[in-house]
Amino acid sequence: MEKDTDIGGRERRFPATRHSMVEGARSPDPEQRRLAFERVVQAYWKPVYVYLRLRWGASAEDAKDLTQGFFARALEKRFFDPYDPARARFRTFLRTCLDGYAANEQAAERRLKRGGGVAVLSFDFATAERDLPALSLSTGEDADAVFHREWVRAVCAEAVENLRRRCRESGRERALAVFERCDLSDLADADRPSYAALAAEFGIPLTEVTNLLASARRLFRATMLETLRVRTASDEEFADEVLWLRGRSSA
Amino acid sequence: MTLPDATVGHLLRIAGGAEVPGWRYELREEIGRGGMGVVYRAHDRELQRDVALKVLRAGADAGDLARRLHREARVLASLEHPGMVPVHDVGVLADGLGFYVMKLVRGRRLDQWAAGAPAMSERLRAFERICETVAFAHAHGVVHRDLKPGNVMLGAFGEVLVMDWGVAKVLSDAGVASAATAVDGETAAGTVLGTPGYMAPEQAAGDSRAIDARTDVYALGGLLHFLLAGSPPTAGPLPRGTPRPLAAIVQRCLAVARTERYASATDLAADVRAFQARDPVSAYPETPLRKARRIVSRYRVPIALVLTYMLIRVALIFWTRG
Description:
heterodimer; A: globular; disordered N terminus; B: Phosphorylase Kinase, domain 1; 5-stranded antiparallel beta sheet; 3-stranded antiparallel beta sheet; 11 helices; elongated
């Protein structure tokens, strides 16, 4: 059997040394907690915003305030401290916290902006709002599915950004360009360019296309794993997320 | 940057390995999840058919789990029976996770099937098939240890399959395939594997040395209880109106002392078969009156014919004399 068959790429085992943002967000050290918290916010603000817009029916302005408020309150009240990786995925836990927060806010009809420790973070709400029609609620999709779907999208986006950075740092711009053309285009699978078309487009031999693409995809699998590792709190949760994503590979 | 749905789906296929040229299997959706592994529907590109691919759920105890997954594949491969799922392939993924490939069973789990309220005779026939498969495994020195409705599948063609042999115990003194016996040290003493509600007392107590075929007989009793009541024995007694011999069979399976249970799944299946044929059931000692009732119930048509004939004869005699 071909060994390069999995999400981890060739001979890659789960990376175990990356610092978990989830663990950091629960750290007793305030500075470490603040830094980790900012990463949690960066990783989750968009799924949270979209979820509030689509599932809670919040207006754009309310959703912005609620998103800011949720993270500010989470930092202030240390929402994530009781998280137990043995009981649930972190993203499920965060979504449950968000539902509780949104329900309270809705009941109290409070829409006060909260600064807290995250006001300095810039949320690109304009982009999120522009993308909203394309992310609209599918018929029959439940509350969990919306949040988790946006979580998957955010994980993929972060992994792609990391891939771009690593390709540029290691001088693999051409592999990145082939990957972007073949795998990042907004095309149905049947419409993706053939290897021959890519070879003609880039003016390189067919074999080089396959090599470049294989190398970029391998690197992408590695960055996906790293992204997941950072977003999870334990080996168990990490493996669980990897397997869960595998199960969505045809979704 | 917002990735469109189509791009996200494509990236997930790349990340999941489905886009890797050369790998025989293309992963499709997740179809099951248990304590040990996740099962996906996958497509075998070589043979152009769908299969079930079970991947180990890694974790802190991945070493032990990996051994169990491998052992499950070997146990299944060593037991060829219509009630067992055939294993096609076994291997290790690039990230070190073990997997094995088996036949994709299209059908329903026992609990889903039973929810459709099939006739008592159908339920008992399905139960007999389960007993036969388990008895076959016992004959080869393998105890399942996690029999429950979720681990039994009824296929589209009426086949009954016993699934999930991941926590099976291979008895060292039985003539089982050498590949399976090599991994018998699977559970440290005191480790509890199984499902509450169907787990025998000795298993719940973590007494791994006391595990034998009668441990599965207990779980089979739980399964029979489920088929009769729609719930495990811990959820309540059998419903009123359950035939007494059947209730006695369940009771005998669920005896706390192993020595009071059926010695084998074969004996249990024989008793269930006897009940269906209205023959004496070993778990239900008969008084003469009960025996008479059973015989009357079993031969009610010929008895009715004879009685009718005799009544007509008597009536004729009186009529001719009168």
